User: What shape does this take?
Amino acid sequence: MSTGDMRSVVRLLTTLERNPEQERRLGLVRERCARTDGHLDEQGIDLDVSVSQALDELIEGAPSVEMSPAYTYAFHEVVASHFSDTTDLGVWRRPSWFHRMDDELARHGVPSDLLPGSFLFSGPPVRLPNPGDAFPSIGVLPAQRAAAPADAYEGVLERLDAEYQDTARKFAELMRFEAEEWESAQQLGQTQDTIFFWFR
Assistant: This one.
């Protein structure tokens, strides 16, 4: 998880004439994409389209395939170059576990738009080729909404099945922190408007 200004990410991908700072940042993104390609090659993973190529195609607005996780990786590298350092949320063996957690929270009255699955797996805020069945997966939550899930999870925490309490508590604490950070950023005139989730 990380936070930042998603508008700056979109501008980098869509601006026709980039300023020197955008060019510098794009150079860093290209380096990150090349490193990701190297890591995938080391693991023997072939995505058909390289992450570096996917970045170029996203900038051109013309992806060459309809399905590939390469574009998701490339978008993540653009986000990573603009957003805060990553906070590690933990390790879960299957994303489907969160559907069970959603059911448990909903059973205790948490609205559907505040359930973890509604933002953890919501997808990127821009249109990308489908990553297919493979990871990675992207989710986003507007930072100004972070207080709502924090309130909801705190309100039902003690009534949840023990299997879900630790994760719900962790998410409540994280969302509370992000809500406070968003309030502080607003007072300082900063624009950290998006919480970004990355599962791989």
Observations:
- The first strand starts at residue 2 and ends at 4.
- The mean pLDDT is 92.
- The helical segments are 6-14, 20-42, 51-60, 70-82, 96-107, 116-120, 147-156, 162-187.
- The two ends are 12 Å apart (CA to CA).
